[in-house]
Amino acid sequence: MWNSYLGKRLKGCGYAFKGALLLLRHEASIQVQAVIGIIMTVAGFYFEISAAEWMLQIFAIGLVMSIEGLNTAAEEIADFVHPDFHNKIGFIKDVAAGAVFFAAITAVIIGCIIYIPKF
What is the model's pTM? Predict the structure, then answer.
């Protein structure tokens, strides 16, 4: 069964779930993002945001957490390949962190668009 198309997809989902748990268990940055995501979800229920606002909010939370995971992967690979300081490795890590910054700013803007009118 595990060699069938469906079996391989299920196996892949298992690896993805394991990766998500590893991130949540070991990475402080993703833990912070998860807590913020929970707070924003509670706020969404409290302020009774619309379906469109829910879609934007869920997209923003997923975007930030996904990019944060990719940033962690890039940093881990860079540290594995070249554990000592190197300008190129520093550049790679900075660019990956910059991607997280763009995602986080996007999420903040989406949050402001949704919640500022509620006050």
Answer: 0.88
